[in-house]
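Example 3.
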Amino acid sequence: MDKGKRYVPTATPETKHFWDGTRQGRLVLQQCRQCEHTYFPPRPFCCKCGSRDVAPRECSGRARLYSYVISHRAAPGFEAPYSIAVVELEEGPRLMTNIINVPQTPEALVLDMPLRVTFKELSNEITLPLFEPQGEAS
Amino acid sequence: MSKAQAAIVGAAETTRIGVVPDMSQLQLHADAAINALADAGIAAGKIDGLATAGEDPVLLAHYLGIKPTWIDGTAVGGCSFMMHVRHAVAAIRQGLCSTVLITHGESGKSRVPAPFFPWPPQPMSLVGQFEAPFGVVGAPTMFTIPVLRYLKTYGISLEKLAMVPVIQRQWAALNPKATFKDPITVDDVLASRMVAYPFTLLMCCPQTDGGGALIITAPERATEFSSSPVYVLGSGEASETTMISQMEDFTSSAAFRSSGAAAFKDAGISHHDVDHLMIYDAFAHLPLYGLEDLGFCGRGEAADMIAEGHTAPGGSLPVNTNGGGLSYMHSGMYGMYALQESVRQVRGIAPAQVPNAKISVAHGVGGMFSVSSTIVLGNLVP
Ligand SMILES: [Zn+2]
């Protein structure tokens, strides 16, 4: 990766459905048909009971702010200060993301604040799920 | 208390630590190894087992003139060296080798070469797909992410968090080899440059150069060596996840709890037996998680325990008495230095010596709460 160029992930056979979903504006996790466990990150089996009988599960996109830091050093594609957050989805799993459309300050970023998913296209293949306050206009 | 499982018969750090631009990473390993061999009073030819992380064990064996019949290249981050101790104990008991050398060396500051840190990760890796795209740039923006949830859960202020580096600096002031020795206040900590809110510069470890080495053998052979032996009484290891976002509980490390409990059980000790404690502290929140997850206090109580001076000089449970990763030194994989200070304390030769320290626990972390290992050391044959 060139210095100064934003990091772009690459899908694998096991994660392709997730990135296909975000490209279409959908947040798709997986759920076990045997024990109903919903999980992330993607894998073609249940990490709780071991069953391979799993199915995609489209999420509501609603989440709450679980924890974060505000980085004060610019990174490729990021202007400081910027938040790096972990959100907890309504369906249970947590994922790393950025909180956007809100000042990047401790005062504006309040733990447990309600969030909703929004999408940012990085390349033809990869669209990232980001989150914004539920009250904001998208 | 359980029987001694092995004896540490050689222990030393590199001849210099801090800024050592005239030594490569490989030579830092070798310098520490030569010092540890001198401490044990043996030649390199006596070593038949080698364990290291951050350097190729085969390359290192040849460089040192060692022909090992047992090799452990476990490299899971900063606690790898605790795991090497645990694995060496098992190998010696199993008869796979008799005298093990464990080395660490890292040119964290001078970068001859820069320590291996797998960043950026492979774009197809799970961290590459699900964490790296969000602007994380290594430990200061990853290891730190759980702390706001911890602080909120237990109603702990940033001022209390800032007490961790303040108290550790009190220990560092007693250690001539410490990188930072000047006293600091809570205001100093909070006013220092913001790195990744809520972590300021003084809540983060420095990057320095150095190394360390240990020599381990069977307890009944301890008298064959010139040093005063330190006994391994118990150990533990455990892993959770390489993805900080997937840590199950942001207020407690599953790996810490599991590794710590295993080590205490293995050693047959309880908390009141512990005279001295090292908790790997790359960042200010780690001693809080460590004290709680090892069971030295209840959940959410560690910040008060530290602020009230219990872990400070003169306190009932001296913690990170070399000044810790925050003030002593932090080359990148700090675990070796925590072990070295535990050895010094139970030998009775530490710069900030805890009076009559008989049992010390060294607790390490690898990655960002990814993995953990815990070693219990003592100076008496139980
Ligand atoms: Zn299942």
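The longest strand of chain A covers residues 62-71. Chain A has one helix and eight strands.
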